[in-house]
Specification:
By secondary structure, the protein is of the alpha/beta class. The chain contains 18 helices and 7 strands. It folds into 2 domains: about 250 residues, 3-Layer(aba) Sandwich (Rossmann fold), CATH 3.40.50.150; about 90 residues, no CATH class. The mean pLDDT is about 90.
Length: about 375
């Protein structure tokens, strides 16, 4: 039987769409409650959050992605953890300054599959810039930082955002300077479906949307700019400054480097649809699933069908973790006897979520 995912017929997967993971791994690990006894399924994406589950000590982590480019991102990260020091890893990723990224890549190269070697051999410029800098979504955010931000915010305002220590001070800055008419209008255009589809996400990824990306983002922005401390938010820092300055994602932090390296044998990956990967997993096997925002790309019937297959492959108590941006997806009534929604936990963790562009975090437990 051939297992196809709905999005495969609608979008192209030949390029790196995400060279970083844009879900908060701190939230993911708390939501999934990863332990040394767990068998995890994870959407590979760029590899960062899959490696966070490895670093959390899971017994087995199976990464899946329809995109060979995204699997190549994961493979090169795995090789870097095996071959490089923590500082060298950050150089290769593009966080630390370096003139030696090609040499660092060569040290990792023999640990890659033939497909991943061919992929990265053909992209010397992406290696030179840093392998976590050049995905389609990251390029889109770079346009935002270099073009839109200077048109809407003064340098002093950007600097103050990361220096102000209290919520009251940040609220005053947001009200008086940041949230101006030009900011709202240009963001409306920049995060509109036409711009996002052309430069950022494939238009097929938002075909089931029930609101605009800017509409969703507008509600969440004060959480990141005012309520949370911007100096502790790596995602906001990268968007505004182009690098992480005072905070790093979970898998990039020095204290987690050896935790990931020491458990890499727990990781395996497969370049295929999640439906195809699930078809190979016996009943009652999985204990936690990082599903990113894949349900955004699916019709309601396809979403419910995939949920049923996840339930089949999962043990009682397994947690399914996923995010919504512009599509409402949460446990359908037809599966209320098989899934329990952990709404209180999800609400508490979503309030801490540093990846502020998701309107909803969903945590569901198999019963």
């Amino acid at each position: 039987m051939k297992h196809r995912t709905e999005i495969a017929a609608k979008a192209s997967f030949g390029e790196v769409r995400y060279s970083q993971c844009w879900e908060d791994a701190d939230v993911l690990l708390s939501a999934a409650n990863v332990t040394a006894a767990d068998t995890c399924l994870s959407i590979a994406s760029a590899g960062d959050n899959t490696l966070a589950m490895v670093g959390a000590g899971a017994k087995r982590v199976l990464a899946a992605d329809l995109s060979a480019a995204q699997i190549a991102c994961l493979e090169l990260r795995v090789a870097a953890y095996r071959c490089l020091s923590h500082g060298e890893l950050l150089e290769l990723l593009g966080q630390n300054e370096s003139v030696s990224r090609q040499q660092l890549y060569q040290r990792c190269r023999n640990h890659l599959s033939a497909d991943a070697r061919n992929f990265w051999d053909a992209k010397p410029e992406e290696v030179r810039r840093g392998i976590a800098q050049g995905g389609r979504f990251e390029r889109y955010l770079t346009i935002f930082r270099r073009v839109l931000l200077p048109m809407t915010q003064r340098r002093q305002t950007l600097r103050q955002l990361f220096e102000l220590e209290t919520e009251a001070e940040r609220q005053a800055l947001y009200d008086s300077n940041w949230n101006n008419r030009r900011w709202r209008f240009l963001c409306f255009l920049f995060f509109g479906q036409a711009s996002l589809g052309r430069f950022g996400r494939d238009p097929a990824f938002t075909r089931f949307a029930d609101e605009s990306v800017w509409g969703s983002l507008q509600r969440r922005l004060p959480q990141a700019l005012v309520v949370q401390d911007p100096a502790a938010n790596p995602y906001l820092q990268w968007i505004i400054k182009g690098r992480f300055e005072t905070a790093l994602p979970w898998s990039w932090r020095a204290e987690n480097f050896n935790r990931i390296r020491d458990n890499l044998d727990a990781l395996e990956w497969q370049c295929d649809s999640i439906e195809a990967v699930l078809a190979t997993i016996p009943d009652n096997t999985l204990t936690c699933c990082n599903l990113s925002d894949i349900f955004e790309y699916m019709s309601q019937p396809a979403y419910e069908s995939l949920l049923q297959e996840l339930i089949r492959a999962s043990a009682t108590g397994a947690r399914l973790v996923y995010w919504n941006v512009v599509v409402s997806r949460s446990r359908p009534a037809s599966l209320s006897g098989s899934l329990r929604s952990l709404r209180a936990l999800a609400k508490r963790l979503h309030a801490k979520d540093k990846a502020f562009f998701y309107r909803d975090l969903v945590i569901e437990e198999v019963v």
